[in-house]
Design goal:
Elements lengths: L1 E10 L7 E13 L4 E7 L10 E4 L2 H12 L2 E2 L16
Length: 90
């Protein structure tokens, strides 16, 4: 599993001129049921929040699709790959 954090900045609809910053934890892995790469969102505890989205021919293509769907930019300090047994419920 490869994890990255997506940083999403939006204008606050209730307070013009203020930004809201949200973070999305995205995991990309090889999905045997698809026979290809896929991505999904996780919470801080490592629990999956979204169904698998895919298939994609490469892990980087899955990350690009997540960014296109959710908006934002990747956090500069990228996380290292995490073994699947290190994620609760994944």
């Amino acid at each position: 599993m490869h994890l990255r954090t997506l940083v999403i900045d939006r204008d606050d609809p209730e307070e013009p001129g203020l930004l809201l910053r949200r973070y999305a934890r995205i995991g990309v892995c090889w999905d045997p049921s698809l026979g290809d790469w896929a991505w999904m969102r996780f919470n801080a505890a490592g629990q999956a929040l979204s169904p698998v989205v895919g298939p994609f021919p490469a892990s980087e293509a899955a990350f690009e699709d997540a960014m296109l769907n959710l908006g934002g930019r990747w956090e500069e300090a990228e996380a290292q790959p995490v073994p699947a047994e290190g994620l609760a419920g994944a």
